[in-house]
Write a structure and sequence with these properties.
The complex is a heterotrimer. By secondary structure, chain A is α+β, with helices and mostly antiparallel strands. Chain A has a single domain, classed as 3-layer Sandwich (Rieske Iron-sulfur Protein). Chain A has 3 helices and 10 strands; from the N terminus they run H-H-E-E-E-H-E-E-E-E-E-E-E. In chain A, strand 6 and strand 7 form a beta hairpin. Chain A is elongated and about 95 Å long. A two-stranded antiparallel ribbon of chain B has the order 1-2. Chain B folds into 2 domains: 251 residues, Cytochrome Bc1 Complex, Chain C, CATH 1.20.810; 133 residues, plastocyanin oxidoreductase (Helix Hairpins). In chain B, helix 3 runs antiparallel to helix 9, helix 11 packs antiparallel against helix 12 and helix 11 packs across helix 14. Chain C folds into 2 domains: 161 residues, Cytochrome c-like domain (Cytochrome Bc1 Complex, Chain D, domain 2), CATH 1.10.760.10; 36 residues. Chain C contains 9 helices and 4 strands. In chain C, 31% of the residues are buried. The chains are: A alpha+beta, B mainly alpha, C mainly alpha.
């Protein structure tokens, strides 16, 4: 082949080559961003991040399950006795006061996903039992018996009117 | 540390030697012009299409009831979905533009001649795979043009002797283009690019066996070859920069120019658009199809018009290398052929009138004559050129090629 | 090579002319949010009764920057997440017009002539001798003169209705491609970057090739 000066690749590379490489790599990196971003939830899913729930149809001692961000949320309309019973204890394996888990004591709003492996527990009054591995929760969603380690998660929610909550916004 | 890892690999895998032999140190003629950039560019566009296609496939739904909706979802709701979609639609056109220029370069410089016939034929195979991929991809948005274009083209298979009707139904999966057609076209559209990648590997193996042709037509002496890296890597990357500027100008500022307005209307099997038009890269072949009044004849003519390129190594009887470089008649034929293709493209685009049909028929006849008369013309031109006199280098090359042929017999 | 380019240019010039005898108005879309907002308002009054925009959601209007209360007034009982579907059912539409009024989400892109065509169509209604309305640009249309321009003889009134049509088309233009502004803005940055990169790459190429001993 024709003679040519070997590119000096053991030490100093000239400034032009260095600058071009930096600009090129930066561009290639920036070019990845739209692809990665496209995998994030799209606009209509972010819109469904909040769910409005009308509590008026739920009778005392009744429970309704609603969908929020693809997950079930248990809404329990607690009786005075149930509230008293929950206030009396701190739960079980993951001690927490009942009043810290509710905004209005007669309404319990928890994500119905077992904190062990993610199954949906069944309502087995009082509380819930997860049929996958036997975890038990009380009427405050606190774990009484494992293998679940933590209490049922309380989603961010707030009362937007009497008898209406918006799940997704605290 | 890096060298230790590389040494470990080299013991077990020809990494360094492969890179040195086939990539960085690979001997390439020093006189390649920018017309030789287009193979690399085709590879770049292939990668762009596979990448954008993959990410589009994460959101697209290949179900006739919701396909069009899923495209709207991508365009409106998916983060940067509009960018993925426009890159992919523009990329399809870019792919054909690059490939057609690549083919034109090969035809002009006679790079299809011995010993590069297999390169030309693997290229032919790649063109067919690309056309099939593009055709199937065009159905996916499920717009009016998608649906009716697929209907017209699948209908052509009726020309198959004896079993034509069954072939059409088998292709479609239904009596008319429908959900089954869409789903299988999606599956195949996803598959074919990987077949293309495989065929590209074969194409490159062939290339590395016979080495690049060059504008002079003569096999250069060893001293006139230069290593691919850094000369052609730097030239290819610069060419890629120019290409990306043109490509992204279209993507960001004129993306709708390549999307037929009728395709913004959801497919309606009950209503045919006024004017069914394929994408620009199929127009010349479409014109040839419509030029023949008989349906089977039209299909045969169209198929032949694509396949006839394969015969070039046999049709060109000239002993003079370099294509149009030293052969003025061949050069003129080449340029008129390019003009002919543009005329055919125009004929394919406009709604057919008696005038345009006539022009199309003349252009179709010229198209085939360019190939079929080439043996005669190339031989006659050779006679004339030898009499007139050729550069000594060319005569020397011809003499040595004859010598080789004699030895092989 | 030059012959190639010349013939290419020749072919580009030979595009088929528009078939309508009436010339399309040269329409310049107003991409500002205020124009789009006026367009939505006019649309909700004059068009929404029959035409839907199934791919445009009320929340998209919020993303554009329109005030949420205004959107609430427009959407009435529909939620913010819902699409801008029309008030009329398909059956009722066919009863009244013989056809379901087409969805307008992509209409400016779905017609040759785009924005100019839609605008010209909207202001192209005229009164025939027997008191019926016709349209210069789509004579077989089943759509009534929604803006009432065919009976507007007063130049001030005509001008006002043309303004309304202008706003509607500006809105529909946004509706067909909500990311257009973002796309063009990003485009300037990308092309700018690529020009810099290509200039650098060109210089690298020159530098590398200069080392080649002749």
């Amino acid at each position: 082949m024709a003679e040519y000066d070997e590119l000096d690749d053991t030490g100093r590379r000239n400034f032009l080559l260095r600058a071009t490489s930096v600009v090129g790599v930066a561009g290639a990196g920036a070019a990845c961003l739209p692809f990665v971003a496209s995998m994030n939830p799209s606009a209509e899913l972010l819109a469904k991040a909040n769910t409005e729930v009308d509590l008026s149809g739920i009778p005392e001692d009744g429970m309704r399950t609603v969908a929020w961000q693809g997950k079930p949320v248990f809404i329990l309309h607690r009786t005075k006795e149930e509230i008293k019973a929950m206030a009396a204890t701190n739960g079980g394996l993951d001690p927490e006061q009942d009043k810290d888990r509710v905004k209005q004591p007669e309404w319990l709003v928890v994500i119905g996903v077992c904190t062990h492996m993610g199954c949906v527990p069944n309502r087995e009054g009082p509380g819930w039992t997860c049929h996958c591995h036997g975890s038990q929760y009380d009427d405050s969603g606190r774990v009484l018996r494992g293998p679940a380690p933590k209490n049922l998660e309380v989603p961010p929610y707030r009362f937007i009117a009497a008898g209406k909550i918006m799940i997704g916004e605290a | 540390m890096k060298n230790k890892i590389i040494k470990w690999i080299d013991h077990r895998f020809p990494l360094t030697s492969f890179i040195k032999h086939e990539l960085t140190g690979y001997p390439t003629p020093r006189n390649l012009s920018y017309w030789w950039n287009f193979g690399f560019l085709a590879g770049i566009v292939l990668m762009l299409q596979v990448l954008t296609g993959l990410f589009l496939a994460m959101h697209y739904k290949p179900d006739a009831a919701i396909a069009f909706d899923s495209i709207q979802h991508i365009m409106r709701d998916v983060n940067y979905g509009w960018l993925l979609r426009f890159m992919h639609s523009t990329g399809a056109s870019a792919f054909f533009l690059v490939i057609y220029i690549h083919m034109a370069r090969t035809l002009y410089y006679g790079s299809y001649r011995a010993p590069r016939e297999l390169m030309w034929w693997t290229g032919q195979g790649l063109l067919l795979l690309l056309m099939a991929t593009a055709f199937m991809g065009y159905l996916l948005p499920w717009g009016q043009m998608s649906f009716w274009g697929a209907t017209v083209i699948t209908n052509l298979f009726r020309a198959t002797p004896f079993i034509g009707d069954q072939v059409v139904v088998w292709l479609r999966g239904d009596y008319a283009v429908g959900d089954d057609t869409l789903t299988r076209f999606f599956a195949l559209h996803y598959l074919f690019p990987f077949l293309i990648i495989g065929a590209v590997v074969v194409h490159l193996v062939a290339l590395h066996t016979v080495r690049s042709s060059n504008p002079s037509g003569i096999n250069l002496a060893d001293k006139d070859n230069i290593p691919f890296h850094p000369y052609y890597t730097s030239k290819d990357f610069f060419g890629m920069g120019v290409f990306l500027i043109a490509y992204f100008i279209v993507v960001f500022f004129f993306p709708h120019s390549l999307i037929e307005s009728a395709n913004n209307i959801p497919a309606n099997p009950m209503v045919t658009p006024d004017h069914i038009v394929p994408e620009w890269y199929f127009l010349p072949f479409y014109a040839i199809l419509r030029s023949v009044p008989n349906m089977v004849g039209g299909v045969v003519a169209m198929g032949l018009s694509v396949m006839i390129f394969a015969f070039m190594p046999f049709l060109d009887r000239s002993r003079i290398p370099g294509g149009g470089r030293y052969r003025p008649v061949y050069r003129m034929l080449f340029f008129i052929f390019m003009l002919d293709i543009l005329v055919l493209g125009y004929v394919g685009y406009v709604p057919p009138t008696s005038q345009t049909i006539a022009i199309g028929q003349v252009a179709t006849i010229y198209y085939f004559c360019s190939f079929l008369l080439l043996p005669l013309i190339s031989k006659a031109e050779d006679k004339w050129l030898f009499k007139r006199g050729l550069p000594p280098k060319i005569l020397a090359l011809i003499a040595s090629e004859e010598e080789e042929k004699r030895k092989r017999r | 090579m030059n012959r190639f380019i010349a013939t290419l240019a020749l072919c580009c010039a030979a595009f088929p002319a528009s078939a309508s005898e009436n010339k399309l108005e040269n329409f310049q879309v107003d991409t500002s949010v205020v124009a789009v907002e006026r367009g939505v308002d006019t649309f909700m009054n004059a068009c929404h009764g029959c035409h839907s925009l199934k791919y445009v959601h009320y929340r998209d209007l919020a993303s554009l920057g329109i005030d949420k209360d205004r959107i609430a007034a427009w959407r009435g009982d529909s939620t913010l997440d819902s699409a801008m579907t029309s008030l009329i059912s398909d059956e009722a539409a066919i009863q009244s017009f013989g056809i379901v009024p087409p969805d307008l989400s992509m209409m400016v892109r779905a017609r040759e002539g785009g924005n100019s065509y839609i605008y010209s169509y909207l202001v192209g209604y005229y009164l025939t001798q027997d008191g019926k309305t016709g349209n210069h640009f789509y004579p077989i249309t089943k759509m009534p003169d929604a803006l009432g321009i065919s009976s507007a003889t007063d130049p001030a009134k005509r001008s006002e209705l043309q303004g309304k049509a202008h706003d509607i088309v500006s809105f529909l233009s946004w509706a067909a491609d909500p990311h257009e502004a973002e796309r063009k803005a990003l485009g300037y940055y990308v092309i700018g970057y690529l020009i810099i990169l290509t200039v650098l790459l060109y210089n690298v190429k020159l530098q590398v090739w200069s080392r080649l001993k002749v």
